[in-house]
Amino acid sequence: MFNRESLSKIELQLGLNWKNPEHLIQALTHSSYAHENKNLNLEHNQRLEFLGDAVLELVVSNYLFNKYPDYPEGTLTKIRAGIVCEPSLALVAENLNLGELLLMGRGEERSGGRKRPSILADALEALIGGIYLDRGMGKATEFIINKLSPVIETVIQNGGLNSDFKTQLQELVQKKSENTLGYTIIEESGPDHLKTFVAGVMFQGELQGSGSGRTKKEAEQAAAKDALDKIISGTLGFLDGDPQ
User: Fold this and answer.
1) What is the pLDDT of residues 168-214, one digit of tens each?
2) Are the CB atoms for 173 and 181 separated by under 8 Å?
C-alpha cells in the first residue's frame, strides 16, 4: 500500500501533483490487488480505465483534427487507431514505469503481470481517467499530448502503425527475407481457469524471442514484442545475413 512518501515520489515521477491522492491510488490499483485485500476496501482501476479510454480518444481525435485539416476521415481514423492501440499505450506505460508502480496481487505479479502489455495499456488509460477527474480536461490533455508525443509523431510519419507486434515483426521480416516466422507454445502452467502460456517466435528453426500471457494469442504477441525490442536495441540481428 502507498504511504505519503511513496505517493510524493510517484507524483514527481509522473510530473503531476494530485488534488485528491485517492484518484491516483485508484488508478494504480489493479483488480487482483483489490480482490486479494478486500479488508482494505480499495476501488480498483477498471472504472477509471473506462473513463480514461474515452478521454484519450477525444483528446487524440481533437489533436489530429486541428493539426491536420487536410487529412480525410479515413486517414485520421487510421492514425488514431495506431496511437490508441494496446502496443502504443503499453510502450508509453513502460516509459512511465507504470508496471512497477501498480498495486498488484501476488498471483498476477508471479505470472508476469507487471510487464503484460494489456495490463500496462489499461493502467495508462486508468491514469488518464484519474487525471481527468482530479485536474480536469486541460491537465488530462496536457499529459496525453506530452507523454504520447513520440508515439503520435511515429504513427503520423508511418501513416498509422500496425495494432499488433506480430504484424509489425512479420512486415519487418518480409522486407528482409523470403523465409517466414513461426510461433510455438514452449510452456503451459497453472490451473485451467488461470493458465499462463509461454510462447516463442521461431525463424529458420531458431528461437528469436519469447513471452508469456494468459492466452496463447497474448503470449505470441509478447514473444513478437521481445524479438522487436531486441532488433531495435541491436542485440538481435537474425535478418542481417539472411538471403534476399
Assistant:
1) 788 778 777 778 899 999 999 988 877 889 999 999 889 999 999 88
2) yes
Give the active site residue among 49, 53, 134, 164.
53
Q: What are phi and psi of 188, to 5 degrees?
A: -130, 140
d(CA 49, CA 57): 12
Under 8 Å between Cβ of 90 and 165: no
State how far Cα 221 lies from the chain centre.
Answer: 12
Residue 110 C-beta-side C-alpha neighbours within 13 Å: 8
Q: Among 137, 104, 117, 129, which residue's Cα sits nearest to residue 47?
A: 129
Task: Share the mean pLDDT of the chain.
Answer: 88
What domains, with CATH codes, occur in the chain? 4-158 (1.10.1520.10), 165-233 (3.30.160.20)
Report pTM.
0.69
Active-site residue, 125 included: yes
List of E strands, 57-195: 181-189
What DSSP letter does each residue of 221-233 carry, written as one string? HHHHHHHHHHHHH
Buried-exposed string 82-113: b where 16+ CB fall within 10 A, e elsewhere: bbbbbbbbbbbbbebebbebbbbbeebeebbb
43 C-beta neighbours (distance < 10 Å), count: 14
Given the residues 108, 122, 125, 134, the one annotated as active site: 125
- pLDDT tens figures, 142-165: 999 999 988 888 788 766 654 467
How many CB atoms within 10 Å of residue 122? 26
Return the number of other C-beta atoms located less than 10 Å from residue 13's C-beta.
13
36 is catalytic: no
